[in-house]
Amino acid sequence: MRAAITGTGFWVPEQVITNQDLTRLMDTSDQWIVERSGIRERRWLRVGEDGRTELTGAEMGANAARMAMADAGITADDIDFVIYATVNPDIFFPGNGVFIEDLLELGTVGAMDIRNQCTGFVYGLAAAEGFIRSGTAQTILLIGGEIQSTALDVSNRGRDTAVLFGDGAGAAIVQGTEEDRGVIASVLHSQGRFARELWAEIPCGNVAGRYTPEMVEGGGNHPHMNGKMVFKHATRRFCEAIREVMKKGGVGPDDVALVIPHQANQRITDAVGQRMGFPPERVFSNIAKYGNTTAASIPIALAEAVREGRLKSGDLLVLVAFGSGFTWGANLLRW
Ligand code: ACO
Question: Which residues line the pocket of ligand 1, CB cutoff 6 A?
Fold first, then answer.
């Protein structure tokens, strides 16, 4: 039994935030952002007078899921498990997976959240494959979704990070098949000694009351990133993961039709493509439109790649990610 992606979908907020829009919030420029990251605009959920976003993260995920279900030609009755990858659950607990179960009226199917940041979808696909191969599930709804905008420090203090991130959700239906397609191999890694190089501290389970005033003053409720360190590790680990998953699957770079990297930063994507010898047309990018949507970036990119006709039946596809943790990994699939 193999595990194949049989449907994809995505949903992004209507509100477009251009680089120019950000110049009204902080000292930055379109040129700085484009040169450093390749990002021209991103989508941010609108926030109402009550301070809440127009949709919850789970509602965004449900919208992406409905598109993926229609694409796969299935209904909610066919889904027997939910995996939700996110850095940004709507609340501290429970995770967004159970809200999806409720929103899509999935009965009482199992729902699990994955907290592996930008690598969440890659980990989730490996987990989905394992559940399918072991007979635990047959049709899994795998979602990557993020509300980043509400966490960002849009003052000058947070400008190195705030300009990079966007909101959105992507979904895939992963189903058991006996055909020669689907996940061939996955590789997963982490290195917690670098956890503090890209993190958001609050809410903090080991602190009474979950935060202290000092933590808030220090910006602990916003993501913090050592950009240079992340850049250095990301380019190296992206390449290692691609090599490792190709070796595990017994294929070489010339066999791979398309690489969909986590949309971290166009400079990282370009460096990885060059080092690995993949021409730009074989490395998917949509970061200019959506920024970095963390766990949502690969499923959104996959859904767009499918709709742009970038994948045909039988093609070899590599999904690869690196992110906070640090965590990194890759999946090799036959489409
Ligand atoms: N606009 C204008 N100037 C800025 C901004 C901004 N938004 N942010 C920082 N600057 C300034 C800095 O203050 C600094 O000014 P100074 O020289 O007067 O001190 C100058 O720009 C250069 O700052 P650096 O941090 O040295 O800039 P660098 O060239 O390293 O670029 C960046 C920063 C884009 C974050 C870079 O380190 C990078 O690409 N890192 C990779 C991180 C990344 O992409 N993470 C994605 C999320 S994690 C993931 O998905 C894996």
Answer: 28, 32, 36-37, 118, 159-160, 163-164, 198, 225, 227-228, 230-231, 234, 264-265, 267-268, 292, 322-323
- Ligand 1 centroid to residue 226 C-alpha, Å: 9
What is the Cα–Cα distance from 115 to 109, expressed in whole angstroms? 20
The residues, any chain, with a CB within 8 Å of residue 197's CB and separated by 6 or more, are: 225, 226, 229, 230, 233, 326
**Average per-residue pLDDT in the chain?**
97
pLDDT digits (tens, 9 = 90+) for 66-79: 999 999 999 999 99
In the block, tokens 């301070």 appear at 51
The full set of domains in the chain, from first to last, is 2-179 (3.40.47.10), 183-334 (3.40.47.10)
Output the CA 37–ligand 1 centroid distance in Å.
Answer: 9
Which residue has a Cα nearest atom 22 of ligand 1? 160
